[in-house]
Design brief:
Elements (H helix, E strand, L loop, with lengths): L1 H8 L4 H15 L3 H11 L8 E3 L2 E3 L3 E3 L10 H5 L5 E7 L12 E4 L4 E4 L8 H10 L6 E6 L10 H12 L5 E5 L14 H16 L7 E5 L5 H14 L3 E4 L13 H7 L3 E4 L3 H14 L6 E4 L5 H10 L3 E4 L1 H6 L2 H16 L1
Parallel strand pairs: 3-4, 3-13, 4-7, 7-8, 8-9, 9-10, 10-12, 12-13
Antiparallel strand pairs: 1-2, 5-6, 6-11
């Protein structure tokens, strides 16, 4: 059923059809029969799926990655699709339009996406407005935070701290995003010294609250092994709670899509199946070289049950989807959760 719907939706512009689909889903789920149907069709309720990581209990380990619900507008709707947690954002202090459209492209032959959205969002105050109205239905919510495009890197800390403080009462955990390729010079903040400064400031602010929230760092798949060693050191020295591995890649290696098509698309972060292997490599490296001490959320190219199990075997405690959710639909979440019940029984 979903594959037929996907064929129709894929005729249209990806960004426009995203909002059209979510708005239609919002209308449909206003009626209790459809909410009941979604629960029956897409959700798996099983105690064995409960996963406790960095002090939080997730009802299942399958989450939605940041970028899909940038403004926390669709938490209610997405909670009926079977996710155990939903990550909103990336949220910046001030609203910003992001990069010039067209900025989202399907690579159908590769089952991937290239985006250069540029942290388009309505700002932290609008996110809070939506979070106040959200009915989470047992789903945890993460806040993915970043800096505004016009904020120079030397002032980036203030942007992250502002988002952190404003969102603190409304999300269950935080993600520091310094790995998007679509904001100029943002990835420079992944270098060890500026990243240590940024994380230390956020951790210090976090500890000023009576009940601190988990803080995670989202990293790029394009980091070298020496840079990954720095990430491991920073995990220990700054006191953050986990790593999200990985964001989109700037690599264009081994694609089925024609070189001319890739050239026409231009810059942006590549997600979906093409990033699966590298994402898993990074998870495995972090897990092995930290002796399993780093809680990891694995994301990148999860389009099947086997892809999900692969991430968990590599060392991920939780997983997230984005492009796989678009290509495979919400039924994939249920298939993964059912497979994880058996996997955990036999582990």
């Amino acid at each position: 059923m979903y594959y037929l719907l996907r064929k129709i939706l894929f005729i249209f512009d990806p960004e426009k059809v995203h909002y059209f689909t979510m708005n239609m889903l919002s209308i449909v789920l206003k009626t209790s029969p459809f909410r009941y149907l979604f629960k029956r069709v897409f959700q798996v309720e099983d105690k064995s799926l409960e996963t406790e990581v960095f002090g939080l209990k997730f009802k299942n380990p399958v989450g939605l990655a940041a970028g899909f619900d940038k403004n926390a507008k669709y938490i209610n709707e997405l909670s009926y699709c079977g996710f155990g947690f939903i990550e909103i954002g990336t949220i910046t202090p001030k609203p910003q339009d992001g990069n010039i459209k067209v900025r989202l492209f399907r690579l159908k032959e590769d089952e991937g996406l290239i985006n250069r959205m540029g942290f388009n969002n309505d700002g932290v105050e609008m996110a809070i407005h939506h979070l106040k109205k959200a009915r989470k239905n047992g789903v945890l919510v993460g806040g993915n935070i970043g800096k505004n495009k016009v904020t120079p890197n030397e002032n980036a800390v203030s942007d992250y701290l502002l988002c952190f403080e404003r969102l603190f009462d409304y999300v269950d955990y935080f993600v520091v995003n310094v790995s998007s390729p679509n904001t100029p010079n943002l990835r420079d903040l992944q270098e060890k010294e500026p990243l240590k400064l940024l994380l230390t400031q956020i951790v210090n602010k976090n500890e000023s609250f009576e009940k601190p929230k988990p803080i995670l760092l989202k990293i790029a798949p394009d980091l070298s092994n020496s840079q990954l060693d720095d990430i491991i050191d920073l995990f220990t020295s700054t006191g953050i709670d986990g790593i999200i591995s990985t964001n989109t890649t700037i690599s264009r290696d081994n694609l089925k899509t024609s070189a001319s098509r890739i050239k026409d698309i231009g810059a942006g972060g590549l997600s979906g199946k093409p990033v699966r292997a590298r994402s898993t490599e990074v998870i495995r490296y972090l897990n092995e070289h930290s002796n399993g001490t780093i809680p990891i959320i694995g994301v990148g190219g999860i389009h099947s049950v086997n892809d999900a199990i692969e991430k968990i075997k590599a060392g991920a405690s939780l997983i997230q989807m984005y492009t796989g959710f678009i290509y495979e639909g919400p039924a994939l979440i249920k298939r993964i959760n059912k497979a994880l019940i058996d996997f955990r029984k036999n582990a």
